[in-house]
Amino acid sequence: MEIIWYHPSQSATAWIRGLQQRLPQARVRAWQPGDEGPADYALVRSPPAEMLRGRATLRGVFALGAGVDEILKQLEQHPGMLPDSVPLYRLEDTGMARQMQEYAVHSVLTWFRRFDDYQLQQQQACWQPLPPYARETFTVGILGAGVLGQSVAEGLKPWGFPLRVWSRSPKTIDGVTSFAGRDALQPFLQGTQVLINLLPSTPETINLIDQHFLAQLPHGAFFLNIARGAQVVEADLLAALESGQLKAAALDVFQVEPLPEAHPLWSHPRVTITPHNAAVTLIDEAIDYIARAITQDQAGETPQGRVDRQRGY
Ligand SMILES: NC(=O)c1ccc[n+]([C@@H]2O[C@H](COP(=O)([O-])OP(=O)(O)OC[C@H]3O[C@@H](n4cnc5c(N)ncnc54)[C@H](OP(=O)(O)O)[C@@H]3O)[C@@H](O)[C@H]2O)c1
């Protein structure tokens, strides 16, 4: 079995060593331009088109992340880069769910306990206890109820906030209210005090979070974006922060990354920024997951995490 690997910025060493250990029957190599040798599986992040082109005998391509928007965009830009018959898989959880829980719990508690307000007060040496929020109306609404959205809902449960999710299909999750489809978006947003975005970036969700969208939240709501920057119209987000429609935002992802130095989001007093690392790919967990999937595929079973290319996630 031949496996080719490509990542634009990571060293191949740990990946190849780990894959060889878990799949001793495989030969794993870092793909280099010009390599047209045989391959049964490809493990990729932002692969050059020539790496995959013409490889109709591949049994699977594994994206080295949870989101596949980048590779689907590449496939659109380079027709024929990967035959439709080749299954595309993504990483499900592999340690990212816990990282997302940490980020979301931290942000929600910061806002609920008004630590953001106290941080601003401290800059003025201002000693002023503020009225607390009521837990029973501090509703957290999660856009997306997939692997990561559901995990974040689970992570927030111990804190007792009302929880709701919005997805395409209805969900049954103990202690969480499910809203499904476009018709349910308005009631979902109207009752959401803290909005957490965990949607995949697809043609349907790009620029979804705009002025009209944000205006449906209660005045003074909070926004956490840990999915993709392309889903948010940043000028509208800034306007919502200026008007007080949004009280604060924590942002991990942006339309342009790295966020340009002169971007007004950097200096907004109510915005917290992290450099697109809300949940990073953990190599050992990812290798375990991919090795398991390849073993299942070799045994004629269907591995988890197959992407529906038409749907876009
Ligand atoms: N910032 C970071 O560090 C980072 C790290 C990892 C992942 N991410 C992002 O997180 C995203 C979510 O990951 P995941 O593993 O949870 O994905 P997932 O399991 O595929 O879940 C996606 C969820 O979004 C819902 N959805 C998709 N399109 C929708 C639409 N048009 N309207 C309503 N709901 C829609 C799906 O609904 P159904 O359940 O009905 O299908 C599903 O519940 C990834 O795509 C990636 O972009 C970011």
UniProtKB/TrEMBL annotation:
Classification via InterPro entries: D-isomer_DH_NAD-bd, NAD(P)-bd_dom_sf
Tagged with keyword Oxidoreductase: yes
Q: Which domain of life is it from?
A: Bacteria
Q: What is the designated name of this protein? A: Glyoxylate/hydroxypyruvate reductase GhrA
Xref: SUPFAM superfamilies: NAD(P)-binding Rossmann-fold domains
* Name of the encoding gene: ghrA
Annotated NCBIfam families: PRK15469.1 (NF012013)
- Keywords of the record: NAD, Oxidoreductase
What organism is recorded for this protein? Pantoea anthophila
CDD domains per UniProt: GDH_like_2
**Where does the sequence pass through the membrane?**
none
> Any idea where the D-isomer specific 2-hydroxyacid dehydrogenase NAD-binding domain is?
107-278
